[in-house]
Amino acid sequence: MSGPSPRSQPSGLSPMDGLLVLMVIAWGANYSLLKRAFEEIAPAAFNTLRMAFSSAVFLAGIWFARRRAGRSAAGPSSVFYTPHALTLRDRWDLLWLGVVGHCLYQLFFAGGLARTSASNAALIFGASPVAVAIMTAAIGHERVGRLHWLGAVLSTAGIYFVVGHSAAAGGGTLFGDLLMLCAVACWSIYTIGGGRLMSRHSPLFVTGMTMAIGTVPYALLAIPQLLRANWSGVSATVWLLLFPSGLFALNFAFLVWYTAVQKLGPARTSIYSNAVPLVAMITAAIFLGEPITGSKLVGVAAVLGGVVLTRIKLGVRSQK
């Protein structure tokens, strides 16, 4: 994966590892939170509010970090602020990353999650490290060996096992599953494409600015759903879900993810993201009553096994 080189690679557990565990919980539980919210409000309408709220939080954080840097000789951590000026290329990168990594990604993610089960969506998204590895190889940043291709095939088979099984059983989730695959593609492009910016600017700035930029076209596309929404019929529970889904799944989790990529490297960070489907499946079973079927367990095993194969050696080289 192309990206900033980690400054240190601690051999033992660090505070960042603890934050990554919390990130896994936030992302895994978020699937069930969104499914519950989508029962009362259209996906794009709710997601617009969520993205706007999180963008405001990020922009406030960027502003505060800059003010603190101006008043302190030491300045804030590089996680929150770096003094590099924006170049023309930086601005273009922020623009297209915002459109692909937030606008298009959220369109596919929210639309797909609304049309498939939370566990299916999380399982499909669990294959994103494989997509990142293959895309990185395709643009010449890495060499993919036979073992890595085997991992890609295994993960693809795991997704097909679940998606194909659902379609064969007469489920109406196939279109949602396909939208989630498109979301995986957008996330992978965003992860790879943000590498150069992350080497110059802080995770807070890159994540916050791209989210704010992507929220604008997303909100414009969501206007029909926003106008049709029955706001008076939305329960207090759904309104309350907006805040944890925004603060934890977007603000906290996104910042932890890119900080971990910067500090620990993509290989070690991706190990944690692979646990998200398991958390999502368990929380969906508890709160939504989604069954944990044998086909889903086989799919999880295949996807995670494929991810492990694609990270062997490749992950080590990607940190250079």
Describe what this molecule looks like in 3D.
The protein has 320 residues and is mainly alpha-helical. It has one domain (15-67, 87-227, 235-317). It is 76% helix and 0% strand. The protein has 15 helices and no strands. The chain has helices at 15-38, 43-71, 88-115, 118-125, 128-138, 146-168, 174-193, 195-200, 203-221, 223-228, 236-263, 266-273, 276-287, 294-311, 314-317. Helix 9 packs antiparallel against helix 11. The chain is globular and about 55 Å long. It starts with 14 loop residues before the first helix and ends with a helix. 51% of the residues are buried. Residues 1-11 and 314-320 have low confidence and may be disordered.
Q: Nutshell version of this structure?
A:
With 320 residues, the protein is mainly α.
